[in-house]
Amino acid sequence: TRTTRPQxxxxxxxINAVRGDPDSVIKAIDHFCKHTEWAMNVGDEKGAILDxxxxxxxxxxxxxxxxxxxxxxxxxxxxLPPATKLITVEMNPEYAHVARQVIQHxxxxxxxxxxxGESADLIPKMANMFGIQAFxxxxxxxWKDHYLPDIRxxxxxxxxxxxxxxxxxxxxxxxxxxxxNYVRYNLKYSSxxxxxxxxxxxxxxxxxxxxxxxx
Length: 215
Ligand SMILES: Nc1ncnc2c1ncn2[C@@H]1O[C@H](/C=C/CNC(=O)c2cc([N+](=O)[O-])cc(O)c2O)[C@@H](O)[C@H]1O
Ligand SMILES: [Mg+2]
What we know:
Elements lengths: L4 H12 L5 H14 L7 H15 L3 E5 L5 H7 L7 E6 L2 H13 L6 E5 L2 H4 L3 H5 L4 E6 L6 H10 L3 E9 L2 H5 L1 H8 L4 E9 L6 E9 L3
Parallel strand pairs: 1-2, 1-4, 2-3, 4-5
Antiparallel strand pairs: 5-7, 6-7
Helix pairs in contact: 1-2, 1-5, 3-4
The protein binds ligand CL4 and magnesium ion.
């Protein structure tokens, strides 16, 4: 049977990227998506904004929803100090398997936990599973209609604290209007928009950074 896009992306990484070198993994995926086959990774332009927000946040605990092939997982984790942990949630077992191999190729497997399952099922279990209080940084890049229910679930589970930063991909394209409305017109968040383009295209898109103001 034909290979899947994630499998073809992984093959490009294993052929073109240097083992243990996260930047070469990122470059190999961006090259694959620009010259061979588009894939829904956050990409290089929005990825540079993601890098800046991660670096200014200096998070100790990180959550990502929607691992896909692990591109943004590698982007974020390569910037984290040794003691930190990143939890990334992926409901598709085949994508999770590809992501684990991409993360391993980057040499970042010891700093990442790829959790297989649906975010709504796993979020309520995280505090106990990992002995954490709150997430310092959350990256939303899963189904766009899950952004709003999942940020509310994170609040209800006490997994956001004052200063927690939530960064959401694709708030213009494909868009997450209910989520945007919630974080922009709600005193619990201080929100700002970073204009950019949809990965590997000239279509307008952007990221929304929302800082939790505390209960
Ligand atoms: N509730 C949940 N729990 C766990 N994993 C979940 C989940 N919902 C979705 N996922 C996973 O997250 C990824 C989906 C991403 C949707 N992005 C997109 O649909 C998307 C589309 C475009 N686009 O169309 O141009 C551009 C982009 O940057 C995009 O992120 C898939 O790997 C999927 O299995
Ligand atoms: Mg995205």
